[in-house]
Amino acid sequence: AKERLVAYFENGPGRECQIDHLYFERRSQRWPIIVNESFYEQIIGDKNKSFQYDLFGMKFEPNLQSYGFSNLRAYESVCSEVLKLCNLDPTSTIFLQYFSDIGILPLIASQHVDQSYGLDPSQFAIKAAIKTQEKYPHTENVQFNVCTKKDEFKTVLTKIEQNKKKNASLTCVFGPTRGELERQDLRQNKFIVSVLRECDLIDRLIVVHRGV
Asked: What is the pTM assigned to this prediction?
């Protein structure tokens, strides 16, 4: 399969696509999908040149284990619309996103708010977000953390409530979720959403359905 892909994209009709990077995915089993247990081998492209997304004037270097985006332009449009709904400047002073993935929204929001949080159940996504954050000193106020349990999420919200300034508002974004989720992850998402619904601290809640 790898040889056919290389032949198609390097020497065949696929040359017109002008692909810079192509990765071949291996899994220990086909079904059910085990999230975070895939291996990716680069078969086209310079292995010394990092694969990056150019979004909102920043360069994001994804970890392939953090899933990436099947339609980058659509994802950028979704992010733009979410930021409009957040109305971060000047009414919101705290921003939090669950399923922050590679950190796009928290890093952008950090330029308009006092505190910005990015939470994600994937350690690979959080590592990728922190790697991007290190390139941009003006985003140092963003706090990225792995969050997989309802109690962990409650702890984050409690700390925000304890440290928030008087009259500060909190905007929360949930999603977009990823497609390759196991049943236990879907169940955990339900618990996270229940915490969001019951939290009186939140002034604005935006739920983004995965449609990209």
From this structure: 0.80
